Amino acid sequence: MAPGFHKYAEIGAALMKLHIEYEQQVEYPLERRETGKLNWRVEKMALSKDKTQLRYNEFLTLSGIPPEVYEYRLGNRSALEWVVDQYRVSTDARSGIVNDPNREDDPEYIVRLVGQVVTVSAETVRLVGELAGLSIDQG
């Protein structure tokens, strides 16, 4: 067994728990700017050009997204960019079936998910950084 094995295993276990339990993670403390009438419904979210803000809808803008969030990637985009792209109302051109991610039983789910994905992404980058700092022969 490599001398630094226990630290690798500890960080690996933390990463596994973080990703398996992503919906139980605390929301990252994003700043919420609310304007107009209360509305949790998402049609299509959009990131600002500098990617520090997320326009959730006409009622809500989330800001304070840390830049390291974009370092954790799922293929060619960050986890947050994936959520922004996937959690929108769309209609399949061929079938006409509407895909609507909004939940009547939990209207704030998508806002909460965004905060949790920011937490998971930032913590993943931090933990992977710890792994990179370890050497095989470290005790």
What layout of secondary structure does this protein have?
Blueprint: H1 5-20, E1 31-34, E2 46-47, E3 53-55, E4 60-63, E5 73-74, E6 77-78, H2 79-86, E7 90-91, E8 98-99, H3 109-132
Antiparallel strand pairs: 1-4, 2-3, 3-4, 5-6, 7-8
Helix pairs in contact: 1-3, 2-3
Overall description:
The chain is α+β, with helices and mostly antiparallel strands. It has one domain (5-132). Helix content is 35%, strand content 15%. The chain has three helices and eight strands. The chain has helices spanning 5-20, 79-86, 109-132; strands at 31-34, 46-47, 53-55, 60-63, 73-74, 77-78, 90-91, 98-99. A four-stranded antiparallel β-sheet has the order 1-4-3-2, covered by helices on one side. A two-stranded antiparallel sheet has the order 5-6. The protein has a two-stranded antiparallel ribbon with strand order 7-8. β2 (46-47) and β3 (53-55) form a beta hairpin. The radius of gyration is 18 Å and the shape is elongated. The termini are close together. 14% of the residues are buried. The mean pLDDT is 93.
How many distinct beta strands? 8
Total tally of structural domains: 1
N/C terminus separation = 11 Å
Structural class: alpha+beta
Runs in which pLDDT lies below 50 for 5 or more consecutive residues are none
Strand ordering within the main sheet:
1-4-3-2
**Share of helix, binned:** 25-40%
Query: What's the average pLDDT?
Result: 93
H/E element order: HEEEEEEHEEH
Query: Radius of gyration, rounded?
Result: 18 Å
Global shape: elongated
Work out the helix count: 3
Q: Main beta sheet: strand number and arrangement?
A: 4 strands, antiparallel
Q: DSSP strand (E) fraction? A: 15-25%
